[in-house]
Amino acid sequence: MKFFSTLAASTLGTLIALGIAVLFFFMFIFALAASSEDVPRVREGTLLVAELSGGMPELVSGDPFAQLLANEPSLDLRSAKRAFEKAAVDDRITGLWLRVRSSSIPWAATQELRASIAEFKSTGKPVYASSDDFMTMEGEYFLLSVADSVFAAPGGLFEFNGFAIVATFYKGLLDKLGIEPQIVRSGKFKSAVEPFQRSSMSEENRQQLNDLLVAQEGVYLQTISEARGLSVEELRERASNDAILRVDEAVDMGLVDELIYNDQVIARWKERLAVEPDGKLKTISLARYAKVPASSAGLKEGKAGKIAIVYAVGTIVGGASDEETPFSAGVIGSETFAKAIKEARESDDVKAVVLRIDSPGGFAPAADAMLREVELTAAKKPVVVSMANVAASGGYWMAMAADTIVAEPLTLTGSIGAFSLFFNTSAFFDDKLGITFDRVRTSPYADMLSGVRALSEAETRLLQDLTDETYTRFIDIVAENREMTTEDVQELAQGRVWMGIQAKDVGLVDVLGGLGDATEIAADLAGLEPGSYSTRSLPRPKTFLERMTRSLEAEAVSAWTHVTTSAAERAMREQMKALEEALRDHATVQARMAFDIRID
Q: For the chain, percent helix, then strand, then coil, each to nearest 5?
C-alpha cells in the first residue's frame, strides 16, 4: 500500500508541476502580447470617454496579469490626472464624456480628479457628464457637477440629503466573548480606541466628527453652488428640510440638466461635434489614452532632472510592506519606505522628492523611523508632502520634515495623539475554550504583556507613562517643524482629526492642492523650469508574477511543514497565527487615526 500511495503522490506532484509550467507558459505569452501592444492611435476629432467605476488607487503596477487575475484597476489616480492634462492640450481631442457608475473613489481623490477635469474644461472643450447608474450618490455628483451639462437616466434616484458618519462599536461583542480591552491613550479626541471600550460615541468624538461634517458640507455645497449657479443657502435648505431623492426633483432644482438615455447622450455628442446622425463617433477610453506619450499630445517632458514621487500608502508597520501574495495590500512597512526614499535621496537624477501620503498612521516607532528617513532626504534635496485622502497621526508624524505640506480641502489629517491597546483574553480562553494559564516569573511585571491576565494599577501607570512619552515627542516634533509653541500644538492636538481646509486655517498644512500642485512646488524649490523635468514613482509596485513567486515560496514552506509536523501541531500553529493577527496591535504604542471615518 505504501508503494501505491507514494506512486500516487509522485504522479500528482508531477501533474501539478506540469500544470504550473503550462500556466506560466501561457502567462508568459500573454505578457509578451500585452507588452508588444501598439501605442494607441488618436485620430483627429476624437472624443475622450472617461468611464469611472469602483475605486481608484494611488498607484498600480500596470501589470496585465494583475488586472486580469487580481482585479487590479487599469488606472491609478496620477495616470488619470495626467491623461486629462494631456487631453487638454491635445488638438486631436475635441471633448470629454464623463461616465460614472458605482464610484467608490474617496472624497479627496474625487476632488483631485474634479480639479483636473476643470482644467480640461477651461480650454473651451466641451464636457458632458452622465450617470450610468440608476442611483446617483453625492460623491458621484460632486464629480459630475464639473461638466457643462449633466445628464441622468429617467426614473433614477438621486441622493442630495446631507452627510453622515456611522461608527461601529465592538464592546458588546467583546463582553460576550469574555475579552477585556485595557486601553491607555493620550489625547481626549483620540477615538481609535472607543469601538473597543464604548457602545456609543464620547462627547469629544461626537464634537470632532460633527465639525468634520460641517467642513465637508461647506466644501461640497460651495463647489456645487459655483458649478450650478445656485446659492449655498438654497442648497443647504433643500438638503436639510426637503431632501432630494428622485432624479426629476434634481432637474427641477437645477442640479441635473436633462433626463435622457445613453443613446440620446450619444446623439447630443454627434450634434455638438458635427457628426452625421447616422455617423460614428470617434472615441478613445481614458485608460487607453493614458498610454499615449505626452510628447505626441503636445506636452513637454525635459531632461533637466526628475522629481521622485515616493508613495506611503496604508497602515504604518515595522519591517517590510506586506506583498506576500498578489492580493495583499494595505500596509506600508518602515523598511520598504526607507529603501524607496533612500533610492530617491541617493539618485543624482532626482532633484526633489514629493512624498505622497495616504495613511491613517500606525505603529509609532515605525512612523518615527520613517520621519528620520524624510529628514535625511530633506537635508540633501527639497521634499514636499502631498497628502491624499488621509494623512493622520503617524501619517502626519512622518510628514513633519518636509519643506512644504500640501493637502486637499477634503483630506483627513492631524490626529496628533497616541494610544496603547491591550486585551485580557483569560476569561475567553477559560470560559469558551477551557484553557487556563499559570506562570512562574522573576519579576511581577515579567508577564504584563502576555494578554492572559489583567493589568495591575502599577502596570497601567507604566504603560500610560510610555504612551504619554510618545505623545509628548509627537507634540515636540510638530512644534519644532511647524514653528509653533508646544502650547499651541496642544490646542490643536489631543488626537483631534482635522479636514484639510481646517488644517490650513490652523497651520497644520501649508497649501491646499493636489499631487500636481505639490510636484510644481517641488520643481520650483529645485530650480526646475516647467516642462524641463520628468517624474518617477517609488517604490515600484511588484508585478503579479513577482508576488506570485513569493506566494509559491510560501506554499513550499507550508508543504514542508505539512510533511514534518503532526495534524495537532499544524492546528495549533493555525490557531496561534490567527490569534497573532487579531491581536497585532496588542501591547504596542500606536499613532493611528480612528479605524474608520467614512463620510456618506
A: 45, 20, 35
